[in-house]
Design goal:
Two copies of one chain form a homodimer. Chain A is α/β, with parallel strands linked by helices. Chain A folds into two domains: 10-113 and 267-340, FAD/NAD(P)-binding domain; 117-264, 3-Layer(bba) Sandwich (FAD/NAD(P)-binding domain), CATH 3.50.50. Helices cover 32% and strands 23% of the residues of chain A. Chain A is built from eleven helices and 25 strands. Chain A has helices at 18-27, 49-53, 66-69, 119-124, 131-150, 154-160, 170-190, 216-229, 322-340, 376-389, 393-409, and strands at 10-14, 33-38, 42-44, 63-65, 76-80, 83-87, 92-95, 98-101, 104-107, 111-113, 162-166, 200-204, 231-234, 239-243, 246-249, 254-256, 259-262, 266-268, 279-280, 285-287, 300-302, 307-308, 355-360, 363-368, 371-374. In chain A, strands 5-2-1-9-21 form a five-stranded parallel β-sheet, covered by helices on one side. Chain A has a four-stranded parallel β-sheet with strand order 13-12-11-17. In chain A, a hairpin with a 2-residue loop joins strand 7 (92-95) and strand 8. The interface between A and B is large, with 53 and 54 residues.
């Protein structure tokens, strides 16, 4: 892949998500030759993917060119590549564009949607873990509405106007709230000849409350917000099947729907090649020690969603969200700098900055340690934090402008079917 | 397609481009039942498509939901549909979503790329007449650069870094200037490990000057601008073939390139079904009289690129650009209102507002009647006019912001491969 040889130790980073980018940014000026690999040429700000799906933001606002992120490094190389295999004995990574040797390897491949082995659901449900998937969902929602307004078959229209989301974590809550707001404010103006009282949004959750990772207070408040927006919540309910446009659950509930979104879990996205015991099969994550070293290897590290660092506070590892990934990336950068100077590496400590989710206009919930609040102020904090963490001045300003516009006009401006999803047989969607 | 019957005469408009939209907007509050059909749910601002291809603008900035444009009409219906056939005897249009009867029909289907019967070029060249095509071109340019930086084959790299554009009309000039600016300002920072002196841009034109529809002065100035940017111009040259990554011309020129863009002509995009003599085979446009009536029919009109209205000033019809389309749409609206009141329709007169093209930063040419100017002021006028004509406040502001950002930073921020083009076998691209 045409990387020049150098006297510097070579550090290969697989994945340009939150963890990989945080690491690379801190090391570009250090004495490493850095090779960053990603299947895309951009970093995705995943917490706002749902905004793309509900036509609130343009895809380019939440993506940022990876080359631009690392351009300050003299010995830093980006290569767009799919990684197929790691060969730890020869310190080699095999990719879609050739092999590359490493001195140090960092695996930051993140997570993918978890279907818990249900192939029927995997083949039929929409998912939303990357930009093409989020765009496919946007297209499908809009295409189904176009079909609903023109069909003369009442049963079919009902199906097209029913939206079912499995999983009431932040993604499920934000999506169902967003779709409800489309119905309440945007769509009736767009489709004056359609009766939107027939449109239904169902949110299905296996546990006994929405937003299970958050506080009881956040669950209660977000339930109230969702109900106010008209979302039907089904708790203690597991989706068993989705075929022939019918969702069925373990509680006997059946829902006819043309849009079924699976947001009920994630699992690690590891790379083949490492020894079996470096790896926790149940969650597909690499077992790492307190300095993010993968079990069994000295020069292979894993950070972010793909790393499982079990300790007393987090016996099952850290939550698979942005903050632990960013913090691990930064921490590993510090440790690798120490290592260059012959110093010992320091253990990682996670600083929990809190959790938040937005349900809609003026409606969000925030848990900051013991501080828990909801409503307009929480929503404001949510917006501020997300703008702050977006990469790049341009993306921040465009997003800020779009949100202001949408807020003032009760609108979602990006409702465009640029690539139809139906019948497109899009292979990208399955990744 | 579920359009309610009404006492109002039904006006079916095929196509939501400049002409169809100008017409529909002026008639939404009149005593017609309007049905607007388009294969997309958005209007495309075609003059800025090239900015999407060179990563200067996001696709959503130059597209606008058609439903939003017509939402003020009580008797106005939008349906997303592909139109297959017109049956004038039964006053019926056949579409992908069923048949519809009309009292009045307006054909505003615009133009498509003209390959002059060369199937090899049609199968292999990139084109840029709609948003998915513009996005495909953006992806291909960026994918080729990614491949160029990693290949170790010098010959292959040369091919990947060579960009050939056929046709030096506004599209070809704007594209080649835009790609040259990417090379001069943006790419060297993105790819510090690549030598961009090897990157070549060739613009091939059949006539003896660039921008043949504009003044001699504009041609001279734009030639100077293009040469300053480092574009190789080949005049009096016709592309004969493009296969196995080789462009060959009637002058014996051969160029190895992985990116060949065909911008050498457009032709009408008519609908099947009308009698043969309503139609000028050479240009695929409908023959219309001075009130835009299609030859041989009383209640069928054609406006915009698809209409050929020959008169003394324009013996071959009006230029196939935005202004005649907008003016014909507005004029036909006026005439249809007169018709409702039993008044005679008035002949269309085209008011030539001038022509302009931008080559790059501070570089544009403008012909306004006898007033001809070039350089910074022309570029400023070009920007102002294009912002003015963009549909929607949000699109104007986002575009303005992106342009300002790009100008200040010598940047093009949207360089993202959201949908890879290579190997995607994208059928949309061929439309």
């Amino acid at each position: 892949m045409n990387i020049p040889s150098s006297n510097l130790p070579r550090l290969v980073i697989i994945g340009g998500g939150f963890a990989g980018v945080a690491l690379a940014k801190k090391l570009v000026k250090e004495d490493f030759q850095i090779v960053l690999l990603d299947r895309n040429n951009y970093h995705t700000f995943q917490p706002l993917l749902y905004q793309v799906s509900i036509s609130g933001l343009e895809p380019d606002s939440i993506a940022y060119p990876l080359r631009k992120i690392i351009k300050k490094g003299k010995n830093t190389y980006f290569r767009m590549a799919e990684v197929n295999n790691i060969d730890p004995n020869n310190q080699k990574v095999t990719t879609s564009i050739g092999d590359i040797y490493y001195d140090y390897l960092v695996i930051a491949t993140g997570a993918k949607t978890n279907f818990f082995g249900n192939e029927v659901i995997e083949n039929n449900a929409m998912r939303m873990k990357n930009l093409p998937q989020a765009l496919n969902l946007r297209s499908l929602i809009l295409e189904n509405l176009e079909e609903a307004v023109r069909t003369e078959d009442e049963q079919k229209r009902k199906e097209l106007l029913t939206f079912v989301i499995a999983g009431a974590g932040p993604t499920g809550v934000e999506l169902s709230g967003g779709i409800a707001e489309l119905r309440n404010h945007v769509l009736p103006r767009d489709f004056p000849d359609m009766d939107f009282s027939a449109m239904e949004i169902h949110l299905i959750e296996g546990s006994d409350r929405v937003l299970p990772p958050m506080s009881e207070n956040a669950s209660k408040k977000s339930t109230k917000f969702l109900e106010k927006l008209g979302v039907n919540i089904h708790l203690n309910t597991l989706v068993k099947d989705y075929s022939q446009h019918t969702v069925s659950t373990n509680t006997g509930l059946t829902l006819q729907t043309a849009t079924f979104i699976w947001a009920a879990g994630v699992t690690g996205a590891p790379v083949d090649g490492l020894q079996a015991d470096s790896f926790v099969a149940k969650t597909n994550r690499y077992q790492v020690n307190e300095i993010n070293q993968v079990a069994g290897y000295n020069n292979i590290f894993a950070i972010g969603d793909i790393a499982l660092m079990a300790n007393e506070t987090y016996p099952k590892g850290h939550p698979m969200v942005a903050q632990p990934a960013i913090q691990q990336g930064k921490h590993l950068a510090k440790n690798l700098k120490r290592h260059l100077k012959g110093k010992d590496m320091l253990p990682f400590e996670y600083f929990d900055k809190g959790t938040m989710a937005t349900i809609g206009r003026n409606k969000a919930v925030v848990d900051l340690g013991k501080l828990r609040f909801a409503g307009f102020f929480a929503w404001f904090v949510w917006m501020f934090i997300h703008l702050w963490f977006l990469v790049g001045f341009r993306n921040r300003l465009v997003t800020f402008f779009n949100w202001s516009y949408n807020y003032i006009n009760f609108d979602k401006a990006a409702r465009l079917i640029v690539r139809p999803f139906k019948g497109s047989n899009d292979v990208i969607e399955k990744v």
